[in-house]
Design brief:
8-stranded parallel beta barrel; alpha/beta; globular; disulfide bond; binds 2-acetamido-2-deoxy-beta-D-glucopyranose; 298 residues; Glyco_hydro18_cat; 9 strands; 10 helices
Length: 298
């Protein structure tokens, strides 16, 4: 890069500052959907704290099951009660926020048993949540920005095929984002193979509930080692530091704001793959204001 002589030298420091800030600035991704007392989707987007909102979860699918959404107390998908979210999804997107659907979750109740099963789920997701058509779209006509894999069953089969099938739909116009929330032990037992495809845009690694690779008070080494493994091994566009937004949000791995900003973020932000912080979840973020307290540091 060079600067033409016509650029005033007094503008250079500002320009350099902007470039530096631009290369390091991260975003915050938040999971929403598993607690009816966490505010609406529209409220969530209106905070201005998040660049990605991940709807949790499509919790049943595969092996012959009818795919079913579970958004806890927010709405009842069985009586088609979640279509009201369509206008909220569009208002989030109008603010530049990407809204994704997470498939899976910690409760189980899902699996992929064959290549045909993976293909069938991809077709279902396209027709019911993405750019396709169906008479029974659970979230109405809004077109989501992509699909998040939060697969915690420990079965690694066919998720790579699902990723390839979903990725194929990007050729039909609007890009379909692929994201994933693996656990920090590397490689992930469920989506480790899928992540190797290189098709994922954002990977929010769960650095919690996993003591060998998470932060423990005053000791950033385990997390930093794990971060280096993830960022050097996974061909995703960006890697995020996935964290609980409150001590109660996970069994272990909560990082106090002061520790995050003074020790943890400085250890990982130098990576070109650094994308920001993912939080579980909006409900817990409301309890602590974690996102508000960290957003100027991510
Ligand atoms: C979070 O922010 C809200 C609004 O500013 C405030 O009322 C609340 O006390 C804060 N909660 C915590 C735990 O800091």
């Amino acid at each position: 890069m060079y600067f033409k002589k016509s650029i005033s030298p007094s503008f250079l420091p500002l320009l350099l500052l902007m470039l530096v800030a631009g290369s390091e600035a991260g975003g915050i991704a938040i999971y929403w959907g598993q607690n009816g007392n966490e505010g609406t989707l529209a409220d969530t987007c209106a905070t201005g704290n998040y660049q990605h909102v991940i709807l949790a979860f499509l919790s049943s699918f595969g092996n012959g099951q009818k795919p079913m959404l579970n958004l806890a107390g927010h709405c009842d998908p069985y009586s088609n009660g979640c279509t009201k979210l369509s206008s909220e999804i569009k208002s989030c997107q109008a603010k530049g926020i990407k809204v994704l659907l997470s498939i899976g979750g910690g409760a189980g109740g899902y699996s992929l048993v064959s290549t045909a099963d993976a293909r069938q789920l991809a077709v279902y997701l396209w027709n019911n949540f993405l750019g396709g058509k169906s008479s029974s779209r659970p979230l109405g006509e809004a077109i989501l920005d992509g699909i998040d894999f939060d697969i915690e069953t420990g079965n690694s089969q066919h998720w790579d095929e699902l990723a390839k099938f979903i990725y194929g739909y990007s050729k039909r116009g609007k890009k379909v984002y692929l994201t994933a929330a693996p656990q920090c032990p590397f490689p992930d037992a469920s989506v480790g193979g899928a992540l190797k495809t290189g098709l994922f845009d954002y990977v929010w690694v769960q650095f919690y509930n996993n003591p060998p690779c998470q932060y423990t008070s005053g000791d950033v080494a385990s997390l930093e080692d794990s971060w280096k493994t993830w960022t050097s091994s996974i061909p995703a566009t960006k890697i995020y530091l996935g964290l609980p937004a409150a001590p109660d949000a996970a069994g272990s791995g909560f990082i106090p704001v002061a520790d995050l900003t003074s020790a943890v973020l400085p250890a990982i932000k130098g990576s070109t793959k650094y994308g920001g912080v993912m939080l579980w979840s909006k409900y817990y973020d409301d309890q602590t204001n974690y996102s508000s307290n960290i957003k100027n540091h991510v």
